[in-house]
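Write out this protein's structure.
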Amino acid sequence: MRIVIVGSGFGAVACARELLRAGHRDITVLERGDEMGGVWRDNTYPGAGCDIPSPLYSFSFAPNPGWSRRYAQQGEIHAYLRRVAHDEGIDALVSFGAEVVSATFDDDTGRWTVTTADGRVREAEVLVSAVGQLSRPAWPLVPGLELFDGPCFHSALWDHRLDPRGKNIAVIGTGASSVQFVPELARVAESVTIFQRTPAFIAPKADTPYGSTRRALYRRVPLLLRLERRRIWLLTELLGEGMSGTTRLARLLSRATGRLCLWHLRSQVPDDDLRARLTPDYTPGCKRVLFSNDYLPALGQPHVEVVTAAITEVTPEAILTADGVQRPADAIVVGTGFATQEFLAPMRVTGRGGTTLDEAWSSGARAYLGMCVPDFPNLFLVYGPNTNTGSGSMIDVLQAQGRYIRQCVDRLATGARGPMEVRRDVADAFDDDLQRRLGATVWARCASWYRDSSGRISSNWPGRVSQYVRRVRSLEPTDFSWRR
Protein backbone atom coordinates (compact mmCIF):
# COMPACT_ATOMS: atom_id res chain seq x y z
CA MET A 1 0.00 0.00 0.00
CA ARG A 2 1.11 3.52 -0.71
CA ILE A 3 1.16 5.72 2.39
CA VAL A 4 1.68 9.48 2.52
CA ILE A 5 2.54 11.16 5.84
CA VAL A 6 2.35 14.96 6.03
CA GLY A 7 4.85 16.51 8.45
CA SER A 8 8.14 15.30 9.91
CA GLY A 9 7.97 15.98 13.64
CA PHE A 10 7.68 13.53 16.53
CA GLY A 11 4.23 12.34 15.40
CA ALA A 12 5.39 11.51 11.89
CA VAL A 13 8.44 9.64 13.18
CA ALA A 14 6.34 7.65 15.66
CA CYS A 15 3.89 6.63 12.93
CA ALA A 16 6.48 5.91 10.23
CA ARG A 17 8.50 3.71 12.58
CA GLU A 18 5.48 1.59 13.42
CA LEU A 19 4.64 1.15 9.75
CA LEU A 20 8.21 0.31 8.76
CA ARG A 21 8.57 -2.23 11.55
CA ALA A 22 5.36 -3.90 10.35
CA GLY A 23 6.77 -4.27 6.83
CA HIS A 24 5.06 -1.37 5.08
CA ARG A 25 7.68 0.10 2.76
CA ASP A 26 5.93 2.39 0.28
CA ILE A 27 5.93 5.41 2.59
CA THR A 28 6.46 9.03 1.56
CA VAL A 29 6.88 11.76 4.16
CA LEU A 30 6.07 15.23 2.82
CA GLU A 31 7.81 18.09 4.62
CA ARG A 32 7.35 21.76 3.70
CA GLY A 33 10.71 22.77 5.25
CA ASP A 34 14.27 21.90 4.30
CA GLU A 35 14.92 19.59 7.26
CA MET A 36 12.99 17.40 9.69
CA GLY A 37 11.77 18.45 13.10
CA GLY A 38 8.35 20.11 13.16
CA VAL A 39 8.00 22.59 16.03
CA TRP A 40 11.52 21.78 17.22
CA ARG A 41 12.91 22.88 13.87
CA ASP A 42 10.79 26.03 13.67
CA ASN A 43 10.98 27.39 17.22
CA THR A 44 14.54 28.65 17.56
CA TYR A 45 13.91 31.65 19.80
CA PRO A 46 16.35 32.29 22.68
CA GLY A 47 15.66 29.99 25.62
CA ALA A 48 13.38 27.64 23.62
CA GLY A 49 12.89 24.33 25.40
CA CYS A 50 10.38 21.80 26.65
CA ASP A 51 8.42 21.92 29.92
CA ILE A 52 8.29 18.11 30.15
CA PRO A 53 11.48 16.45 31.51
CA SER A 54 13.51 14.96 28.68
CA PRO A 55 13.70 11.37 30.02
CA LEU A 56 9.91 11.31 29.47
CA TYR A 57 9.76 13.65 26.47
CA SER A 58 11.47 11.07 24.26
CA PHE A 59 10.56 7.86 22.49
CA SER A 60 10.25 4.83 24.76
CA PHE A 61 12.10 2.77 22.12
CA ALA A 62 15.00 5.27 21.96
CA PRO A 63 16.05 6.32 25.47
CA ASN A 64 18.74 8.99 25.46
CA PRO A 65 21.34 8.72 28.24
CA GLY A 66 23.11 11.79 26.87
CA TRP A 67 20.63 14.54 27.82
CA SER A 68 22.62 17.49 29.16
CA ARG A 69 19.90 18.44 31.66
CA ARG A 70 16.49 17.37 32.92
CA TYR A 71 14.71 19.91 30.69
CA ALA A 72 16.58 19.90 27.38
CA GLN A 73 16.46 22.88 25.07
CA GLN A 74 15.43 23.17 21.43
CA GLY A 75 18.72 22.34 19.73
CA GLU A 76 19.24 19.17 21.76
CA ILE A 77 15.65 17.96 21.22
CA HIS A 78 15.86 18.66 17.49
CA ALA A 79 19.15 16.77 17.23
CA TYR A 80 17.64 13.81 19.12
CA LEU A 81 14.63 13.65 16.78
CA ARG A 82 16.81 13.73 13.66
CA ARG A 83 19.10 11.05 15.10
CA VAL A 84 16.17 8.72 15.81
CA ALA A 85 14.75 9.34 12.32
CA HIS A 86 18.13 8.44 10.81
CA ASP A 87 18.59 5.33 12.95
CA GLU A 88 15.10 4.09 11.96
CA GLY A 89 15.61 4.83 8.26
CA ILE A 90 12.83 7.43 8.24
CA ASP A 91 14.88 10.35 6.96
CA ALA A 92 15.34 8.49 3.66
CA LEU A 93 11.56 8.62 3.12
CA VAL A 94 11.27 12.42 3.36
CA SER A 95 10.61 14.76 0.42
CA PHE A 96 11.63 18.26 1.51
CA GLY A 97 10.15 21.50 0.20
CA ALA A 98 6.86 19.65 -0.32
CA GLU A 99 4.09 21.75 1.20
CA VAL A 100 0.74 19.99 0.80
CA VAL A 101 -1.98 22.33 -0.49
CA SER A 102 -4.77 19.80 -1.10
CA ALA A 103 -5.74 16.17 -0.63
CA THR A 104 -8.78 14.65 -2.34
CA PHE A 105 -10.30 11.20 -1.94
CA ASP A 106 -11.48 9.46 -5.11
CA ASP A 107 -14.63 7.41 -4.48
CA ASP A 108 -14.06 5.21 -7.51
CA THR A 109 -10.43 4.23 -6.98
CA GLY A 110 -10.42 4.44 -3.17
CA ARG A 111 -7.24 6.53 -3.27
CA TRP A 112 -6.07 9.90 -2.07
CA THR A 113 -4.63 12.42 -4.51
CA VAL A 114 -2.18 14.69 -2.72
CA THR A 115 -1.01 17.91 -4.38
CA THR A 116 1.95 19.99 -3.21
CA ALA A 117 2.67 23.68 -3.78
CA ASP A 118 5.14 22.89 -6.56
CA GLY A 119 2.32 21.27 -8.55
CA ARG A 120 3.44 17.69 -8.06
CA VAL A 121 0.68 15.12 -7.56
CA ARG A 122 1.01 11.88 -5.61
CA GLU A 123 -1.50 9.06 -5.13
CA ALA A 124 -1.81 6.93 -2.00
CA GLU A 125 -4.24 4.49 -0.45
CA VAL A 126 -3.56 5.88 3.04
CA LEU A 127 -3.10 9.51 4.09
CA VAL A 128 -1.73 10.45 7.53
CA SER A 129 -1.68 14.06 8.71
CA ALA A 130 1.02 14.61 11.32
CA VAL A 131 1.05 18.41 11.27
CA GLY A 132 -0.21 18.59 14.87
CA GLN A 133 -1.85 21.45 16.75
CA LEU A 134 1.11 23.81 17.19
CA SER A 135 2.40 24.46 13.68
CA ARG A 136 0.64 27.69 12.59
CA PRO A 137 1.62 30.89 14.48
CA ALA A 138 -1.32 32.95 15.75
CA TRP A 139 -1.05 36.72 15.28
CA PRO A 140 -2.90 39.23 17.48
CA LEU A 141 -5.58 41.40 15.91
CA VAL A 142 -3.83 44.69 16.61
CA PRO A 143 -4.50 47.69 14.33
CA GLY A 144 -1.40 48.98 12.62
CA LEU A 145 0.88 46.05 13.45
CA GLU A 146 1.83 45.70 9.78
CA LEU A 147 2.83 49.40 9.69
CA PHE A 148 5.58 49.12 12.30
CA ASP A 149 8.90 50.28 10.86
CA GLY A 150 11.24 48.09 12.87
CA PRO A 151 11.64 44.30 13.03
CA CYS A 152 8.33 42.63 13.91
CA PHE A 153 8.07 38.85 14.03
CA HIS A 154 6.40 35.91 15.79
CA SER A 155 8.47 33.92 18.27
CA ALA A 156 7.98 30.80 16.11
CA LEU A 157 9.55 32.71 13.19
CA TRP A 158 12.39 34.28 15.14
CA ASP A 159 14.49 36.76 13.17
CA HIS A 160 18.05 36.04 14.27
CA ARG A 161 19.27 39.13 12.47
CA LEU A 162 17.89 41.12 15.41
CA ASP A 163 20.56 42.09 17.90
CA PRO A 164 18.58 43.11 21.02
CA ARG A 165 21.58 44.71 22.75
CA GLY A 166 20.87 48.33 23.55
CA LYS A 167 17.39 48.24 22.00
CA ASN A 168 13.89 48.84 23.29
CA ILE A 169 12.00 45.58 22.74
CA ALA A 170 8.22 45.27 22.93
CA VAL A 171 6.74 41.83 23.62
CA ILE A 172 3.07 41.11 22.89
CA GLY A 173 1.80 38.06 24.76
CA THR A 174 2.81 36.17 27.88
CA GLY A 175 2.38 32.50 26.95
CA ALA A 176 4.71 29.52 27.17
CA SER A 177 7.16 30.89 24.59
CA SER A 178 7.34 34.37 26.15
CA VAL A 179 8.15 32.87 29.53
CA GLN A 180 11.26 31.40 27.92
CA PHE A 181 12.53 34.21 25.70
CA VAL A 182 11.71 37.26 27.86
CA PRO A 183 14.47 36.51 30.42
CA GLU A 184 16.94 36.14 27.55
CA LEU A 185 15.94 39.51 26.09
CA ALA A 186 16.01 41.17 29.50
CA ARG A 187 19.65 40.19 29.95
CA VAL A 188 20.86 42.31 27.04
CA ALA A 189 18.17 44.76 25.89
CA GLU A 190 18.06 48.41 26.90
CA SER A 191 14.43 47.91 27.90
CA VAL A 192 11.72 45.27 27.57
CA THR A 193 8.05 46.21 27.61
CA ILE A 194 5.65 43.27 27.98
CA PHE A 195 2.02 43.72 26.99
CA GLN A 196 0.05 41.25 29.06
CA ARG A 197 -3.60 40.40 28.52
CA THR A 198 -3.95 37.61 31.10
CA PRO A 199 -1.42 36.54 33.75
CA ALA A 200 -0.46 32.89 33.96
CA PHE A 201 0.00 30.48 36.82
CA ILE A 202 3.75 29.90 36.86
CA ALA A 203 5.25 27.01 38.82
CA PRO A 204 8.91 26.46 39.73
CA LYS A 205 10.85 24.39 37.22
CA ALA A 206 12.75 21.50 38.81
CA ASP A 207 15.54 21.74 36.26
CA THR A 208 19.05 20.50 36.87
CA PRO A 209 22.13 19.76 34.75
CA TYR A 210 22.93 16.12 34.10
CA GLY A 211 26.66 15.88 34.79
CA SER A 212 29.07 13.47 33.16
CA THR A 213 28.77 11.01 36.05
CA ARG A 214 24.99 10.78 35.78
CA ARG A 215 25.14 10.44 32.00
CA ALA A 216 27.73 7.68 32.31
CA LEU A 217 25.52 5.82 34.80
CA TYR A 218 22.51 6.13 32.49
CA ARG A 219 24.62 4.78 29.64
CA ARG A 220 26.09 1.84 31.55
CA VAL A 221 23.01 0.99 33.61
CA PRO A 222 19.99 1.63 31.34
CA LEU A 223 17.66 0.56 34.15
CA LEU A 224 18.46 3.80 35.99
CA LEU A 225 17.24 5.89 33.06
CA ARG A 226 14.09 3.76 32.79
CA LEU A 227 13.44 4.30 36.51
CA GLU A 228 13.90 8.07 36.08
CA ARG A 229 11.42 8.01 33.20
CA ARG A 230 8.97 5.99 35.26
CA ARG A 231 9.28 8.34 38.24
CA ILE A 232 8.54 11.37 36.06
CA TRP A 233 5.67 9.53 34.37
CA LEU A 234 4.02 8.79 37.73
CA LEU A 235 4.32 12.45 38.73
CA THR A 236 2.77 13.69 35.49
CA GLU A 237 -0.05 11.16 35.83
CA LEU A 238 -0.79 12.59 39.28
CA LEU A 239 -0.72 16.16 37.95
CA GLY A 240 -2.88 15.08 35.02
CA GLU A 241 -5.52 13.86 37.45
CA GLY A 242 -5.50 17.31 39.03
CA MET A 243 -6.01 19.02 35.66
CA SER A 244 -8.61 16.74 34.11
CA GLY A 245 -10.16 14.73 36.91
CA THR A 246 -13.47 15.39 38.64
CA THR A 247 -12.82 13.58 41.92
CA ARG A 248 -12.16 15.12 45.32
CA LEU A 249 -8.48 14.21 44.83
CA ALA A 250 -8.47 16.15 41.56
CA ARG A 251 -9.87 19.25 43.26
CA LEU A 252 -7.25 18.96 46.01
CA LEU A 253 -4.47 18.65 43.44
CA SER A 254 -5.76 21.66 41.51
CA ARG A 255 -5.83 23.78 44.67
CA ALA A 256 -2.35 22.58 45.61
CA THR A 257 -1.06 23.60 42.17
CA GLY A 258 -2.56 27.07 42.61
CA ARG A 259 -1.00 27.48 46.06
CA LEU A 260 2.41 26.40 44.75
CA CYS A 261 2.24 28.92 41.91
CA LEU A 262 1.14 31.77 44.21
CA TRP A 263 3.92 30.93 46.67
CA HIS A 264 6.37 30.98 43.75
CA LEU A 265 5.01 34.40 42.73
CA ARG A 266 5.31 35.83 46.26
CA SER A 267 8.85 34.52 46.69
CA GLN A 268 10.09 35.93 43.37
CA VAL A 269 8.15 39.22 43.08
CA PRO A 270 8.44 41.37 46.24
CA ASP A 271 6.81 44.43 44.66
CA ASP A 272 3.12 44.49 45.66
CA ASP A 273 1.90 46.37 42.59
CA LEU A 274 3.70 44.14 40.11
CA ARG A 275 2.64 41.02 41.96
CA ALA A 276 -1.00 42.12 41.76
CA ARG A 277 -0.70 42.49 37.98
CA LEU A 278 0.80 39.00 37.74
CA THR A 279 -1.80 37.26 39.93
CA PRO A 280 -4.34 35.17 37.95
CA ASP A 281 -8.03 35.40 38.80
CA TYR A 282 -9.13 32.05 37.36
CA THR A 283 -9.00 28.41 38.45
CA PRO A 284 -5.49 26.88 38.37
CA GLY A 285 -5.09 24.69 35.29
CA CYS A 286 -7.97 26.30 33.40
CA LYS A 287 -5.29 27.80 31.18
CA ARG A 288 -1.92 26.18 30.64
CA VAL A 289 0.28 26.17 33.75
CA LEU A 290 3.78 27.41 32.89
CA PHE A 291 7.13 26.49 34.41
CA SER A 292 9.99 28.92 34.92
CA ASN A 293 12.57 29.97 37.50
CA ASP A 294 13.78 33.15 35.79
CA TYR A 295 10.71 34.74 34.15
CA LEU A 296 9.23 36.35 37.27
CA PRO A 297 12.57 37.77 38.51
CA ALA A 298 13.15 39.22 35.03
CA LEU A 299 9.88 41.15 35.27
CA GLY A 300 11.02 42.80 38.48
CA GLN A 301 14.09 44.43 36.93
CA PRO A 302 13.98 48.22 36.58
CA HIS A 303 14.34 48.18 32.77
CA VAL A 304 11.42 45.73 32.34
CA GLU A 305 7.80 46.93 32.36
CA VAL A 306 4.59 44.88 32.44
CA VAL A 307 1.67 46.70 30.79
CA THR A 308 -1.85 45.43 31.39
CA ALA A 309 -3.68 48.16 29.46
CA ALA A 310 -5.05 46.91 26.13
CA ILE A 311 -3.20 47.78 22.95
CA THR A 312 -5.28 50.11 20.80
CA GLU A 313 -2.88 50.79 17.95
CA VAL A 314 0.63 50.23 16.66
CA THR A 315 2.31 53.17 14.96
CA PRO A 316 5.51 53.00 12.88
CA GLU A 317 7.59 53.76 15.98
CA ALA A 318 5.53 52.86 19.05
CA ILE A 319 2.65 50.99 20.68
CA LEU A 320 -0.36 52.94 21.96
CA THR A 321 -2.49 51.54 24.80
CA ALA A 322 -5.96 52.27 26.15
CA ASP A 323 -4.53 54.31 29.04
CA GLY A 324 -3.32 56.87 26.50
CA VAL A 325 0.37 56.08 26.86
CA GLN A 326 2.58 55.69 23.80
CA ARG A 327 5.62 53.45 24.33
CA PRO A 328 8.41 53.65 21.71
CA ALA A 329 9.91 50.39 20.44
CA ASP A 330 12.81 49.41 18.21
CA ALA A 331 11.43 45.90 17.64
CA ILE A 332 8.26 43.92 18.37
CA VAL A 333 8.24 40.23 19.27
CA VAL A 334 4.87 38.49 19.16
CA GLY A 335 4.43 35.62 21.60
CA THR A 336 0.74 34.84 21.18
CA GLY A 337 1.01 31.12 20.54
CA PHE A 338 -0.53 29.09 17.75
CA ALA A 339 -3.77 28.72 15.81
CA THR A 340 -4.59 25.53 17.67
CA GLN A 341 -8.05 25.05 16.14
CA GLU A 342 -6.73 24.99 12.55
CA PHE A 343 -5.65 21.37 12.71
CA LEU A 344 -4.86 20.69 9.03
CA ALA A 345 -4.81 24.25 7.66
CA PRO A 346 -3.90 25.49 5.15
CA MET A 347 -4.46 22.12 3.42
CA ARG A 348 -7.79 21.69 1.67
CA VAL A 349 -8.94 18.15 2.43
CA THR A 350 -11.88 16.71 0.47
CA GLY A 351 -13.36 13.37 1.43
CA ARG A 352 -16.05 11.02 0.16
CA GLY A 353 -18.81 12.64 -1.90
CA GLY A 354 -16.94 15.93 -2.17
CA THR A 355 -17.27 16.76 1.54
CA THR A 356 -14.49 19.09 2.72
CA LEU A 357 -13.02 18.91 6.17
CA ASP A 358 -13.98 22.55 6.72
CA GLU A 359 -17.62 21.57 6.12
CA ALA A 360 -17.37 18.52 8.37
CA TRP A 361 -15.90 20.69 11.12
CA SER A 362 -18.18 23.70 10.66
CA SER A 363 -19.40 23.31 14.24
CA GLY A 364 -15.98 22.45 15.68
CA ALA A 365 -13.16 20.01 15.02
CA ARG A 366 -13.82 16.45 16.16
CA ALA A 367 -12.45 13.01 15.36
CA TYR A 368 -13.02 9.49 16.66
CA LEU A 369 -10.13 8.81 19.08
CA GLY A 370 -8.67 12.05 17.73
CA MET A 371 -7.66 10.17 14.56
CA CYS A 372 -10.61 9.29 12.29
CA VAL A 373 -13.37 11.43 10.71
CA PRO A 374 -16.60 10.16 9.07
CA ASP A 375 -16.67 10.69 5.28
CA PHE A 376 -12.86 10.64 5.12
CA PRO A 377 -11.82 7.03 4.44
CA ASN A 378 -8.24 5.95 5.11
CA LEU A 379 -7.39 9.37 6.57
CA PHE A 380 -5.69 9.32 9.97
CA LEU A 381 -4.78 12.31 12.13
CA VAL A 382 -1.80 12.33 14.46
CA TYR A 383 -2.18 14.79 17.38
CA GLY A 384 -5.67 15.58 16.13
CA PRO A 385 -8.67 17.03 17.98
CA ASN A 386 -8.96 16.23 21.70
CA THR A 387 -5.62 14.48 22.01
CA ASN A 388 -3.68 17.22 23.77
CA THR A 389 -2.96 16.48 27.42
CA GLY A 390 -3.06 18.66 30.50
CA SER A 391 0.02 16.95 31.87
CA GLY A 392 2.40 14.30 30.66
CA SER A 393 4.35 13.64 27.51
CA MET A 394 2.73 13.96 24.09
CA ILE A 395 5.31 11.45 22.86
CA ASP A 396 3.43 8.67 24.67
CA VAL A 397 0.23 9.75 22.92
CA LEU A 398 1.93 9.90 19.52
CA GLN A 399 3.42 6.44 19.91
CA ALA A 400 0.01 5.04 20.88
CA GLN A 401 -1.54 6.66 17.81
CA GLY A 402 1.22 5.23 15.62
CA ARG A 403 0.45 1.74 16.89
CA TYR A 404 -3.28 2.19 16.26
CA ILE A 405 -2.74 3.50 12.73
CA ARG A 406 -0.41 0.58 12.02
CA GLN A 407 -3.18 -1.85 13.02
CA CYS A 408 -5.53 -0.11 10.58
CA VAL A 409 -3.01 -0.26 7.74
CA ASP A 410 -2.26 -3.92 8.52
CA ARG A 411 -5.91 -4.77 7.92
CA LEU A 412 -6.13 -2.66 4.81
CA ALA A 413 -2.99 -4.29 3.40
CA THR A 414 -4.55 -7.76 3.44
CA GLY A 415 -6.57 -6.71 0.40
CA ALA A 416 -9.71 -8.44 1.66
CA ARG A 417 -11.34 -5.11 2.36
CA GLY A 418 -11.14 -1.70 0.80
CA PRO A 419 -11.12 1.76 2.37
CA MET A 420 -12.13 1.96 6.03
CA GLU A 421 -14.26 4.78 7.40
CA VAL A 422 -15.34 5.31 11.00
CA ARG A 423 -19.08 4.88 11.41
CA ARG A 424 -20.87 8.15 12.09
CA ASP A 425 -22.89 6.73 15.00
CA VAL A 426 -19.68 5.50 16.63
CA ALA A 427 -17.94 8.85 16.12
CA ASP A 428 -20.94 10.81 17.41
CA ALA A 429 -21.31 8.64 20.52
CA PHE A 430 -17.59 9.01 21.24
CA ASP A 431 -17.75 12.80 20.85
CA ASP A 432 -20.87 13.13 23.01
CA ASP A 433 -19.20 11.23 25.83
CA LEU A 434 -15.98 13.21 25.36
CA GLN A 435 -17.68 16.59 25.61
CA ARG A 436 -19.73 15.46 28.61
CA ARG A 437 -16.53 14.53 30.43
CA LEU A 438 -14.74 17.68 29.34
CA GLY A 439 -17.60 19.79 30.69
CA ALA A 440 -16.73 18.63 34.19
CA THR A 441 -13.01 19.43 33.94
CA VAL A 442 -11.14 22.57 34.93
CA TRP A 443 -10.80 23.54 31.24
CA ALA A 444 -14.53 24.34 31.04
CA ARG A 445 -14.15 27.20 33.55
CA CYS A 446 -12.48 29.85 31.39
CA ALA A 447 -11.51 30.78 27.84
CA SER A 448 -8.20 29.38 26.60
CA TRP A 449 -6.47 28.05 23.49
CA TYR A 450 -7.97 24.66 24.36
CA ARG A 451 -11.37 25.95 23.15
CA ASP A 452 -12.68 27.19 19.81
CA SER A 453 -14.67 30.38 19.21
CA SER A 454 -17.94 28.65 20.18
CA GLY A 455 -16.51 27.51 23.51
CA ARG A 456 -16.14 23.87 22.49
CA ILE A 457 -13.05 22.21 23.97
CA SER A 458 -11.45 20.83 20.82
CA SER A 459 -7.84 20.36 21.92
CA ASN A 460 -7.74 18.35 25.13
CA TRP A 461 -8.32 14.76 26.17
CA PRO A 462 -10.45 14.54 29.35
CA GLY A 463 -8.18 12.25 31.32
CA ARG A 464 -4.68 11.06 31.96
CA VAL A 465 -2.25 10.02 29.24
CA SER A 466 -2.40 6.40 30.41
CA GLN A 467 -6.17 6.39 29.93
CA TYR A 468 -5.84 7.52 26.32
CA VAL A 469 -3.10 4.97 25.63
CA ARG A 470 -5.33 2.18 26.93
CA ARG A 471 -8.30 3.47 24.94
CA VAL A 472 -6.47 3.20 21.60
CA ARG A 473 -4.53 0.03 22.32
CA SER A 474 -6.60 -2.23 20.07
CA LEU A 475 -8.48 -1.61 16.84
CA GLU A 476 -12.14 -2.58 16.97
CA PRO A 477 -13.06 -3.35 13.33
CA THR A 478 -16.79 -2.99 13.97
CA ASP A 479 -16.24 0.72 14.67
CA PHE A 480 -15.65 1.14 10.95
CA SER A 481 -17.44 0.51 7.71
CA TRP A 482 -15.38 -1.26 5.04
CA ARG A 483 -15.71 -1.29 1.29
CA ARG A 484 -14.74 -4.28 -0.83
